[in-house]
Predict the structure of Class I SAM-dependent methyltransferase.
Amino acid sequence: MNCRFCQTLLTHTFIDLEHSPPSNSFLTVAQLQEPETYFPLKLFVCDQCFLVQLDEVKKRDEIFNSEYVYFSSYSKSWLTHARKYTEQMVTRFGYDENSFVLEIASNDGYLLQYFQEKNIPVLGIEPSANTAAAAALKGIPSITDYFTSHLAKELRKEGRCASLLIANNVLAHVPDINDFVEGLKIALGDKGIITMEFPHLLKLIEECQFDTIYHEHYSYLSFLTVKKIIEAHELVLFDVEQLPTHGGSLRIYAKHRNDSSKPIMPQVQQLAEKETLAGLVDLRAYKNVEKRVSHIKFNFLNFLVEQKKLGNKLIGYGAAAKGNTLLNCCGIKGNQLIEFVVDASPYKQGKFLPGSHIPVFAEDQIIAFKPDYIIIFPWNLKNEIMDQLSYIRNWNGKFVTFIPHTQVYTP
């Protein structure tokens, strides 16, 4: 396998999580009787550009299809994040009815709805037909397709060049990262701005967030590597923010290289220096993570077994990709240790987790079952979830997370 950015032959393993089914491939009752396909989940790091990456062993057309189960609007905190972002962009850059906001991977319209409320013209690009249909119900126009340089040229021919081009949590999902970024340049207006958000590789390493590794994510991104990729396509980063979302993310701001209207903020150099000091331009920084992964896995399994020995009842909350990576890496099969998982999305309820085959129920099952422990799989949303489920204090229930280490919370 060659690096998807610089084409260097990849010979250095970052983390090998062995084989796992795609973490959003939920199963029906009938599918439990059928063979289930597992794919390698092995990350490499390029010794030239330091892009951490997974081979495209599961094709994106099979992942982002008409049955895609992730709908952004089911997270209250994510909607709050989207509304706050909209206010920030409008205040800072003055977008109005004469602007054009284009979002790539627009999902169910969770973000564009807030720009539309301000009478700012919008367009979403979304490959999953069912989430794009949900956006249409909100009156948000979408193109049901993947964003490529070819599609960007078509938009440009139509005169639809973006004042603001948004790509939140999509750069990691792109198999051809060079074509994608080239498309960004083509679709961007002369004085336009690109903002992209993505989980920060430095946080993954520091906090051993290995459960953020799954087949939808082809790349794991540092600021320094993204800066190289952006600059290779005649774009320039002029600002960056560090965000708490997804356990620690970056929001980068890019412009055309010849756009002198936006000064480069000091945060750009500051973060580049921070990553350099953290060793992200040295292979040694990528060597120690796998041992820490094993430690977390053993602690997770020990906790489950010990609690079952004590007669305690355990369930999970959040049928998230994070949880599926953790469960499959630990070899969990069936619901002997974790009885079921609760999720707010009706698209997941009534189905079974891939690999582990743990059933997914609606929240009303929590009160009926009265678990002693609720494992919060999307640990990045733990405060929102603990507040929502605080009623488990009525029977002395507790919450627990395992990344970066085991923590028990009493509501």
User: Anything to note?
Assistant: Residues 289-409 form a domain with the Rossmann fold fold (CATH 3.40.50.720).
